[in-house]
Amino acid sequence: MFRFEDPIYLWLLVLIPVLALIRFISYRNQKKRLRKFGEPALLKALMPDVSRFRPSVKFWILQGALALLVLMLARPQMGTKISQEKRVGIETIICMDISNSMLAEDIVPSRLDRSKMMIENLVDHFSNDKIGLIVFAGDAFVQLPITSDYVSAKMFLSSIDPSMMATQGTDIGRAIDMATHSFTPEEGIGRAIIVITDGENHEGGAVEAAVAAKDAGMRVYVLGVGSSKGSPIPIPGTGDYMKDNTGNTVMSALNEQMCKELAQAGGGAYIHVENNSAAQEQLDNELDKLSKKETTATLYSEFDEQFQAFGLLALLLLVLEICILDRRNPLLKNISLFGKKKRVAAMLCMLLVAASASAQMTDRQYIRQGNKQFRSGDYANAEVSYRKAIEKNAKNPQAAFNLGNALMAQKKDSAAVEQFQGAANLETNPLRKAQAYHNMGVICQTHKMYGEAIEAYKNALRLNPKDDETRYNLVLCKHQKQKQDQQQQNQQGGDNDKKQDDKQKDQQQPDQQKDKQDDKQQEQPKPQMSKDNAEQLLNAAIQNEKQTQEKMKQQQQQPQRRNVLKNW
Description:
Layout: E1 2-4, H1 15-35, H2 40-46, H3 54-73, E2 76-78, E3 81-89, E4 91-97, H4 111-125, E5 130-136, E6 140-147, H5 150-158, H6 172-180, E7 191-197, H7 206-215, E8 218-225, E9 231-232, E10 251-252, H8 256-265, E11 267-273, H9 278-288, E12 293-301, H10 307-323, H11 342-358, H12 363-375, H13 379-392, H14 397-409, H15 413-426, H16 430-446, H17 450-463, H18 468-492, H19 494-523, H20 531-556, H21 562-565
Parallel strand pairs: 4-5, 4-7, 7-8, 8-11
Antiparallel strand pairs: 1-2, 3-12, 5-6, 9-10
Helix pairs in contact: 1-3, 3-10, 4-5, 6-7, 7-8, 10-11, 12-13, 12-14, 13-14, 14-15, 15-16, 16-17, 17-18
């Protein structure tokens, strides 16, 4: 991408045709005055040192230098840039609830969309602060490591959706614990953990995690999204609402009491998010109270200043204009740079000088530069080099693949998958294409997206069947997906097991009645039951009772039984 930061200065380019017109009128008037003295051929013989073309060449050189200076004022920008700056600010980790209950629409347009809008406004308010993003539901993972790159923060924010989480529910404690370990090692800087949730905490340990964060010098702020009256949870794309195991529509309500307890335990504040900007202002005021410290921030810019090349070329043109005299040099009178045959050669030389002055690195050079930076562990600058290579040649698959590796090393997994997919589409070498699919599978497997990971590994093996590492990952991923599916089946089958136990009990009752009838029939020939038969019947009853108790214990000890009842 190429742009001018201050394009208003480009209007100064109008001076160039105006000056050219003035020059043309002046030249015509000069020729008219010379004709008053005599014939042009006679005057040329009388003035052998006067050059016809030197003044024109000098004029157009100055015109070119003027045009380049105007372009410099407009600040041409192209390519990406990473810079290190000293900033005074705080560090903030946002823990965002993306469980299904956040799709409720009691807050316009929905709880999740309203939360995204708040985070985007918060990022716009930041100027010298660092921000990180953690998403959670039944599990939690880091979506964006703490950074000053607000552009990436907004990019990752737009891709957040409840479908990202394989395990539903709401585990606030795990998210807070992960946030406490996601800050930089800087000391003496204010740290804030902002939890955005509707408060339906299906797991335990949230208050304990908030207390631990407070003891570590952090403040936990809770933004309660939703209404206490409750709202149904829409199922995207169906027009229907989520129902529980009994077939009733789920009504998700904001648990303000739990949110307040969590904020109090974390030494922060509770803020109720409504359909206005009051919550945003209150949050900004709370964050302004935190202590600030000077830190070094790595800034990523989509555009890099390119005025230096224009300035260098303008300087060369000015030096060239000074070296060219209006008259022919008597010492060099036998050398004619502006003869009919040599004018073209002179202009070509000038164009070559201009091209060499403004020449930039090729895409392959940027890739080599990025590879050196990647090997040294400088992943941020390597990312910039690879992006510049893509700008030079958008169809270079190696640049896209290497950019994906640099993004993956920085935990920017969503953007990395896009680059690997682009590399796979552009690549013609099957082995390199297989590597792109392999890396996509690794990212998906890390985020427990086992179905997508399996497909990526299969594509990689189709291209490179000899890759044992991919084959091992595929087998492992299938095993993990099988366990995940089994857990989901266990969750759905909890009530079915209970119904089957009830049926077994109902079946046992007629069997027992039948046994009693048989006993009565047997009592007719025998007045009393023998001691051995009585002991056998007693032992059988005790054994049946033990089996029933063990079944009940197994149902109560299943680890994710709570998610069966509340999958939101």
